Amino acid sequence: MDINKVRSHFPILDRKTYLNSCSYGALADSVRRALEQYLDDRDSHGASWEQWVGDQERLRESTAMLLGAQASEIALVPSLSAGLNTLTSCLDFTGKRNKVVVTSHDFPTTAQIWHAQKRRGAVVHRVELEDCVDPGDVLGRFAQAIDSTTAVVSVPYICYRNGRKLDVGAIAELAHAHGALMIVDAYQAVGTFPVDVKALDADVLLGGYLKYLMGTAGMAYLYVKGELVDTLQPATSGWFAQEDVSAMAIAENVPAYSARRFEGGTPTVSAIGACRAGLDIVHDTGIDAIAAQNTLITDAIKREAAARGWVSATGDWPHGAMIALRSTDMLKLVARLGEAGIVVSCRDGNIRISPHFYNNENDIQTLFEELDRNSDLMVQE
User: Key word Transferase present in the record (predicted)?
Assistant: First the structure.
């Protein structure tokens, strides 16, 4: 991979040290062109439904290819929240199997959605991971939580606050041993390293395009294992969720035989082209090359932080493309870095340093030179 060539396609890198891909991926020139093409098409043709629907199917196919899935197993939804809400409407919590196992690493939207199911009979059990220094202890905690009453085990692949990575495949094995569904929030994972839904044996996996897939907001994806699709009947619907979208039927609801049944109304057509363009970058670069560059850069971050004795919130855990460092005043530190042209974000008392394959070691050198100037805001071991 020619890193200089890669960087030339992301104009923000000429002006900023951008290390905030966990929040929003850097804008590539090809993604900008796709957004502009949508506007040009509106000016030229007004409505281009055949083109937009065709592009949506191509986005579905491209997403399936990245995940090791079939296109028929992919639903395209406005957001991860929308996809998960539709999925939860399929589930029955009125019987003895009503437990939902979640984690203290969950992103708020997934936790809030599961808590909202309590009125439908769900019992939410949270696996606490904050005090788990040894990642080897994680499976034991899940083993204690998952039992014959468990309906769902819902976990984030990567914690959005500190970058810690869970052994999703091993947790899925525990879930399936007790007959529970395994649901994975992979928003902070897909696009940074290879994710194969079949190898993980995930029943459901959700994510979106605006972070490491370098697309834009307004579009997300929901993978549902093919053999489960027919068993899940959403209580939500819409014309794009029908088996025959063009039927325009109003006398009945005929859900698609594929994962499209988890979709709804008119898709965010303005986002489709941009998300396709972002995915094209991932495919063209190669996910293995992307993962190797992300490892190189995150290793550099860990090395520089350790040399200074600064506390890592990521700790010794396996991690994704994010390293979190403790700060005495995270908001002030993010602001000071921003004034120096360095873009990071913060959560939970940490600054989140989230590179992607377009970052290089010079970016990390620039970051740590500025952190040295603000070392009073860093937590020492």
Answer: yes
d(CA 130, CA 199) in angstroms, rounded, equals 27
Nearest to 83 by CA among 91, 75, 92: 75
| Token pair in block for residue 130 | 């904050």
Do 176 and 150 touch, CB atoms closer than 8 A? no
Round to whole Å and give the CA distance between 361 and 303: 12
Ordered DSSP codes for 268-311:
-HHHHHHHHHHHHHHHHH-HHHHHHHHHHHHHHHHHHHHHHTBP
Task: Give me the domains of the chain, ranges plus CATH numbers.
Answer: 3-27+286-372 (3.90.1150.10), 32-282 (3.40.640.10)
Summarised one tens digit per residue, pLDDT across range 33-60 is 999 999 999 999 999 999 999 999 999 9
Q: What residue spans of 13-137 are helical by DSSP H?
A: 29-45, 49-67, 80-88, 108-116
Its pTM surpasses 0.85: yes
Torsion angle of C-alpha atoms 198, 203, 208, 209, degrees rounded to 10: 20
Residue 28: closest CA among 221, 275, 262: 275
Query: How far is the C-alpha of 381 from the C-alpha of 371, rounded, in Å?
Result: 16
d(CA 306, CA 312): 8
Question: In whole angstroms, how far apart are CA 248 and each of 55, 56, 261, 303?
Answer: 21, 19, 15, 59
In angstroms, rounded to a whole number, what is the distance separating the alpha carbons of residues 211 and 218?
12
Average pLDDT of every residue of the chain: 96
Laid out side by side, the sheet with 74-77 consists of: 74-77, 220-224, 204-208, 181-185, 150-156, 99-103, 123-127
